[in-house]
Amino acid sequence: MKRGFFLIFCTYAIVISILICIFIGNFSYLFTNEDYFVKQLEKHGSFDRVEYAEGTNKVVIDYLQGKSDVVLSLDSFNEREKSHLVDVKVLIEHVYTVFYSSLVILLVCLLLLLRFDSQFYSTLKSILLYTGLSVIGLGLLLGLFSLVFSSTFSVFHQVFFKSGTWLFNPTDTLILLYPFVFFKEFFVRIVWDSVLVGIFFVLFSFVLRYFTTNVK
């Protein structure tokens, strides 16, 4: 009984860990993709509104990635904007902590299953299927949130930031550089890419089931 519960616990822990890694991994891919940012800024007119928009974006992202503190000394950002960037950087650091913690849990639980589960490969196929379906399900739910992204955006900031610290004037550099639609498309892209990964997991699980069933 205890052994069965332990294996089930490891299985669910793996599914949840992979799910977390997929969404954060897709966030990280975009967050570190300089070409993506440049194309989005150009698409939404940031180059027309902000002088040296590309360079300004680079120092912002470099700061959020922990590469440089130059942005905190720029006169183009006021103190409220700089304070918000500090808060955002802290939040991103927490996100990566969750990501790496999930990776550790994933690896540990996989090793435990490999050691104690006599039907490990059968369980692995189920993990792929359940993970894929979970990612697709969560992706569809988040997709619904994107339909009311204005409210989603506000609630997100109310939860993770102190009241009033994330509200800016329309003429502030952060608003001119990163318009509302930029964040909406960033969110939708993460969700869409994650759903595609989920679909791959589901299809791959069926492929494994087919070959393991039909290969003698």
What does this molecule look like?
By secondary structure, this protein is an all-alpha fold. The protein has one domain (2-214). Helix content is 81%, strand content 0%. The protein is built from nine helices and no strands. The longest helix has 38 residues, at 79-116. It is elongated. The mean pLDDT is 94.
| Proportion in helices | over 70%
Termini, distance in Å? 33 Å
How many structurally independent domains?
A: 1
Average predicted confidence as pLDDT: 94
What is the succession of H and E elements? HHHHHHHHH
Which secondary-structure class do the elements indicate? mainly alpha
What attributes characterize this protein structure?
0% strand, 216 residues, single chain, elongated
